[in-house]
Amino acid sequence: MKSIAEHEKITPPAGSVLAKGMYGKNPLLLRARRLLLGKQGNDGLIFKFFTYYLLICIGFVYLYPILFILSQSFKSMDDLLDPTVMWIPREFNLENYIQAWQVLDFPKTLSTTLMNAALPAVAQTISCALVGYGFAKFSFPGKPIFFVLMIITFIIPAQVVMIPLYLLFENYGMTGSSLPFILPAIFAMGIKSTLFILIYTQFFKSIPVALEEAAQIDGAGRISIFFRIVLPISVPAMMVVFLFSFVWHWNETYMASLYLGDAMSTLPLKLQEFNDAFKNMFGGSQAASAKTDINESIKLAGTMLVIFPLLVLYFVAQRWFVEATDKTGISGE
Questions:
Q1: From CA 305, how far away is CA 99, in angstroms rounded?
Q2: 66 Ramachandran zone, left/alpha/beta (phi>0; psi -120 to 50)
Q3: Distance (Å, rounded) from C-alpha 165 to C-alpha 155?
Q4: What digits encode the pLDDT tens for the residues 281-331?
Q5: Cα separation, 319 vs 240, whole angstroms
Q6: DSSP state, 141?
Q7: How would DSSP label each residue in 221-253?
Q8: Rg, the chain, Cα only
Q9: Helical ranges in 172-208 per DSSP H
Q10: Is 327 exposed, middle or buried (0-12, 13-18, 19+ CB in 10 A)?
Q11: How far from the centroid of its chain's Cα atoms is residue 45's Cα?
């Protein structure tokens, strides 16, 4: 009589009784199979090797530019001209950061940049939550039409409406200040607001309806439910919206130069003018000017000062960021 395995023409699992019978005469083969493939096929050495190899490759692609900037920013002129000095400078030249700090006028420019990035980010985090909650939990006439119109505002390029918006803000005397960024954010508009509303809508749909119904039975109104129940459990989504909004407002240069003009400046705008500003501040003789043109370390030190606050922010908020992207299904840009 044939065995069950021969009759069914299948290979028994590694941990089954049949497998033990098949490999019983050769336990080393069974151990090697378990070591390479694992008990369930996804916990063996082969699977782990390819997983970690992929993670290392992706991590290298993201970390290499930052490590390169950090390494180059500490090099002196001699190290830059020496082809034998690759990653680690012979001596760490902090003078690059001191000069870049002065050229960027870092304390003043940082405060201006934070005002143009943090305040709109906070406003969008709250206002987009209200709109997203309405789309996720309420039914009202024309809801599909409003939703489509909102998507259209995301599809239309920002360059199309930039000049009309500038003329609007100019007529109301808002240019030269942060109001062109703050006021639209208060009303769930501004940079990428449609994406933030979609993130909130997706997140709020995952909240059980029974939780809100229980609060209504206890006498809580819609506003009370939103601020006392929904928002406290929506911290991950709020962190993602705040991070995205903060970073996009921080890196915005074209609209910032258009709206702010000469009245204010941000760190990315200062970085664009870094070469000329450095020459005006430290350039003197023709030899000194020529030396300035080839000094990439000071430029990269300025770049590192501009991106350092964002790196700190991501490091602090990474736990909520990963949790919310997993729940909402929205990936970062």
A1: 11
A2: alpha
A3: 17
A4: 776 555 445 455 547 888 888 999 999 998 888 888 777 666 665 655 554
A5: 10
A6: T
A7: -HHHHIIIIITGGGHHHHHHHHHHHHHHHHH--
A8: 29
A9: 179-186, 193-205
A10: middle
A11: 32
List, for residues 53-67, the tens digit of each pLDDT value: 888 988 888 888 888
CA–CA distances in Å: residue 271 to residues 115, 122, 189, 193:
18, 25, 27, 27
Can you tell me the distance from the alpha carbon of 104 to that of 115, in angstroms, rounded to the nearest whole number? 17
CATH 1.10.3720.10 region(s) of the chain? Answer: 105-272
Q: Are 196 and 287 in contact (CB under 8 A)?
A: no
Alpha-helical segments (H) within the chain? 4-8, 17-23, 27-37, 45-73, 77-81, 95-104, 106-137, 143-155, 158-171, 179-186, 193-205, 209-217, 222-225, 235-251, 254-260, 267-272, 274-282, 286-293, 296-328
pTM: 0.77
Distance separating alpha carbons of residues 72 and 80, to the nearest angstrom: 8
Answer yes or no: are the C-beta atoms of 329 and 206 closer than 8 Å.
no
User: How does DSSP classify residue 105?
Assistant: T
Helix pair 45-73, 296-328: axis angle to 10 deg: 140
Looking at domain 105-272, which of 1.10.3720.10, 3.40.50.1000, 1.20.1260.10, 1.10.357.10 is its CATH number?
1.10.3720.10
Tokens linked to 208: 């059980």
Q: In angstroms, how far is CA 193 from the centroid of its own chain?
A: 15
Average pLDDT score over the chain: 80
